[in-house]
Amino acid sequence: MSHINKTKILATIGPASNNYETIKSLAAAGANVFRLNFSHGTHDIHEEVIQIIRRVNEEQNLNLGILQDLQGPKIRVGEVENNGVEIKPGEPITITNDPVVGTSRLVSTVYQNLPNDVVAGDRILIDDGNLEVVVNDTDGKNVNCTVIHGGILKSRKGINLPNTKVSAPSLTEKDIEDLEFGLSQDVDWIALSFVRSPEDIYDLRERIQKAGKVCKIVAKIEKPEALENIDAIIDATDAIMVARGDLGVEVPMEIVPLWQKRMVEKCKLACKPVIIATQMMESMIQNPRPTRAETNDVANAVLDGADAVMLSAETASGKYPVNAVKAMSSIISYLEQNAEIYHNLYKIPEDDTTFLSNNLLLMAARLSRNVKAKAIVGITSSGFTGFRIASHRPLASIFIFTRNKQLITQMSLVWGVRAYLYQNQVSTDATFEDIEKTLKRDDHVSAGDIIINTASMPLKAKGRTNMLKIHQVT
User: Fold this and answer.
1) Annotated catalytic residue within 6, 35, 154, 272
2) Which CATH code of 2.40.33.10, 3.40.190.10, 2.30.30.30, 3.20.20.70 fits the domain covering 81-160?
3) CATH code for the domain defined by 8-72+170-336
4) Catalytic: 278?
5) Is 289 a catalytic residue?
6) Could you tell me the pTM of the whole model?
7) pLDDT tens digits for 83-105?
8) Which CATH architecture has domain 355-472?
9) Among 220, 268, 374, 418, the one annotated catalytic
10) Which residue, 169, 206, 281, 405, shows the most beta carbons closer than 10 Å to its own?
11) 326-379: per-residue pLDDT in tens?
């Protein structure tokens, strides 16, 4: 039985990969979840990609997940003459909310509230921080600034406001339209950009529930306010994305690595998946192999215990999308077979609302280590069992059997979890017998291997896990 990676790979779909053959090849190379970036593309293009992913799932008997990434309140400069002008340190420049064609002294922004949000002394970063200006004063329409770091200012480059409390909501009008589309397509995960507080998550969850859907939420951590509220955000969301691109512009870049490690640890303790994103293999947009530094970056995310690592432009617009997934998969595979990354057996707090079931699942993970079990099996309708067992990072493979069809693809984001649709729950013994046959059929276990079964009794009732059984395959 060959090694199957436990750390999952998210691949972003774009012009370089939005076709059947490439998506099929990305899946074969090791991609588990596909990210649709709603900063780009039409609903028709995204719908076509969703249909392709589901076709590949059906043809290849896979459970590829779909993540919709909402654009959020992206603040940009407007059009600039000649598509680029030089701004020089020490010179004045005005940013206006009037729709003018920009020059070296006057540039527009698409964000109408910018003059009301900023105050004197605020830093404004443009083009991922390559350009920097500081606010002198604002009159409600024009922001008068001085250039600190100059360079070529190009059309529609992003603006970051690291010192400013931005008044824009996390969900823009465009996001709401895109959300309605994503919900109609039953996407598995919805990533919310520029989350600043748990209230942003509550708003999105309310909209999902009103639509009668069960999509799960990924909170993208990109703002200093998110770091200040990180515990409350983790509590409110279903997963976290460490979006290092904007985060590394909004806060000093040297604090990002430590915060990345903190967020991975916090998410493991909270049993919430955590994704490490942005520039993981940036050089592979142009080159067929990653740099040594990029290899180390991916490796450190795996060693820290991240649930997933993500590729952005590497697979969306790069020259070597399949190579990028293969390289990432190879790094993951080697580390998982050679490094000590398993058995994070956290103690369960006594005030935990699911103290009993959580301790039982902790015992399942601990028992799997002690008896060298090949597999831990959870029967679940909510996914609770899968998230909880995965948080302990057992060496044993984790298999989830569920009647909930959408849960199967949602769990593709979770560390180590593989899911099966199972609707024949008649009796406990018959169910466990069926599960053993399925795992043997798919070459996950063989005679003599030990399986640890967990379930909620009685099987047909929805409830917390309350049963643990150890079994040797015959």
Assistant:
1) 35
2) 2.40.33.10
3) 3.20.20.60
4) yes
5) no
6) 0.94
7) 899 999 999 999 999 999 999 99
8) 3-Layer(aba) Sandwich (3.40)
9) 220
10) 281
11) 999 999 999 999 998 998 887 888 787 888 889 999 999 999 999 999 999 999
